[in-house]
Design brief:
The protein has 21 helices and twelve strands. The chain has 501 residues and is an alpha/beta fold.
Length: 501
């Protein structure tokens, strides 16, 4: 291990930055913070994505809170996925505490309590700004990925979307899509076969069952109008601070398919709408995905490929993605390889599997002559973490066991009254509060089917009257009936036969 002076110089040089930055805390040597050995993250590299990991109770949520606060202060908007419901305190200032002052004295920076501009969002029936998207905006490829369809079934979904485009049928919600699917193998079978080829009823049945499964997880609340405009995530308040958008997901923790559906839809929409930013000095928007393992838990190979592609490409739009989870191994290696900032809280070695995970985690960090990484990973205290970032030139910074700064906002949730006040003040609640159910594929096809049935009924009535008329005419000519009967013909032939003999 090196000396304290050598270590201070090592950290100071490794974390020096010419542009703007965020201070995470002070580096530690031999479990003691080295005052003013500040661990700084350049704003320029925050769109390179990141990871916050660690065992339960080690301080991951508070680290997320610190990052969100400091980004907001720098005028950078943030979106937080709040699955546990413990991030709303960002709207109120910290009450302060002597231990916080003591921590900041060790770090070498003053503590300031403050609140931040907060917007409460919702995917479900909870209060807040409703986030919705139409099926058309979702698109056939993404919908097929979410439903985990085969290549043949994906083709059918693409045909359904093409039919709706050709016939100007708006696909707004899931009932629209289900109606077109049923129409394709029912009343509209001839029309589909003529213009798009035959569609298998067994394939449409499978797709329908998967959509119903998605509905049971609450997706019918997500699909519809009015569609959320992603530009509303990038608002700045009157003081030049970025809004912290908190998406409350406490009631969908057990519905990972809905969560991953929303996440992919949102990322795809952001990628489509945001302009290319190139090598910018600051990100446009940062997204924190808490309990990130829920995205990857039930994801198919196709879905993982989609996530990996978005992670790689979205950086050029100035968007940073930060995954928050208990263990880095929860995140696929393909995604983990794309992450620039890693904040690793303590891991626990209770089982052989835990020890293996610690060994793998340690190998993901740069080597340091000041630390035994595997040992540090199990000895970190609450509010301490190993940090590895990228400098302004994209090079890894020195590994630093860090005493993290405290959040400036309340480290607790809002009361019901406080939460109601925040929601009441929101201009977006009014904008997205109304549920719109305009005429779409469901209503148009129902009307079409009704007209077709009425026409068919008329056609059935016409030929029936003709047949009655014909039969009456036959009964009025009994001679013709006798002369053409089989019995009469056989009798005539018998007589002729005898005459000829």
């Amino acid at each position: 291990m090196g000396s304290k002076e050598e270590f201070f110089k090592h950290i100071e040089e490794g974390y020096s930055t010419k542009g703007d930055f965020i201070v995470m805390g002070a580096a530690m040597l031999e479990e003691e913070a080295v005052t003013n050995a500040l661990v700084k993250i350049p704003l320029k590299t925050l769109n390179r994505h990141g990871l916050i990991a660690g065992a339960t109770g080690t301080g991951k949520t508070k680290t997320l809170q610190v990052l969100a606060e400091n980004l907001s202060d720098k005028g950078i908007p943030v979106l937080l996925m709040d699955l546990k419901g413990d991030l709303s305190g960002l709207a109120q200032p910290s009450p302060g505490h002597p231990k916080i002052d003591e921590r900041h004295a060790k770090i070498g920076i003053p503590f300031e309590a403050k609140s931040f501009p907060v917007e409460i969002l919702s995917l479900s029936e909870q209060d807040g700004v409703k986030m919705r998207a139409t099926v058309s905006e979702f698109g056939p490829t993404l919908l097929s990925r979410i439903l985990d369809l085969t290549e043949t079934q994906e083709g059918i979904v693409a045909v359904i979307f093409k039919y709706c485009d050709d016939n100007k049928l708006p696909l707004l919600d899931l009932k629209d899509f289900k109606k077109v699917l049923q129409y394709a193998t029912g009343a509209g079978k001839k029309e589909f076969t003529k213009d798009y080829g035959r569609i298998s009823t067994s394939s449409t049945g499978t797709i329908l069952r998967k959509i119903i499964e998605l509905e049971q997880q609450g997706a019918d609340l997500f699909f519809g109008e009015k569609s959320f405009e992603v530009d509303d995530l990038t608002r700045i308040d009157e003081n030049g601070r970025g809004y912290i958008n908190i998406l409350r997901l406490t009631d969908i923790q057990d519905r990972p398919k809905l969560f991953s559906t929303f996440m992919l839809s949102l990322l795809a929409e952001i990628y489509a709408e945001f302009p290319e930013q190139g090598d910018s000095d600051r990100p446009e928007l940062i997204l924190f995905i808490d309990e990130a393992h829920l995205i990857f838990k039930e994801a198919s190979k196709a879905l993982l490929d989609q996530i990996e592609s978005i992670v790689k490409l979205i950086r050029s739009k100035g968007i940073g993605l930060y995954f928050v989870t208990q263990n880095p191994t929860d995140v696929p290696n393909e995604v983990l390889a794309q992450l620039g900032l890693k904040v690793q809280h303590a891991l626990r070695a209770f089982t052989a599997r835990d020890r293996k995970a610690i060994k793998l985690t340690a190998e993901n960090y740069p080597e340091s002559k000041f630390y035994d990484t595997k040992e540090v990973l199990t000895s970190l205290g609450i509010g301490e973490a190993l940090i590895s970032a990228l400098d302004e030139k994209g090079r890894p910074t020195p590994l630093a066991a860090t005493l993290l700064r405290a959040p400036m906002s309340r480290m607790d949730i809002l009361t019901d009254n406080e939460l109601t006040d925040v929601i009441k003040k929101s201009s977006l609640v009014k904008k997205y509060g109304e549920v719109i159910d305009r005429e779409s594929a469901y209503e148009i096809l129902n009307e079409k089917i009704e007209k077709a049935e009425a026409l068919a009924e008329k056609e059935r009535a016409k030929p029936q009257s003709r047949r009655t008329s014909t039969r009456t005419s036959t009964r009025q000519n009994p001679v013709i009936k006798v002369l053409t009967s089989a019995t009469f013909i056989r009798g005539v032939l018998g007589v002729l036969k005898k005459v000829m003999r």
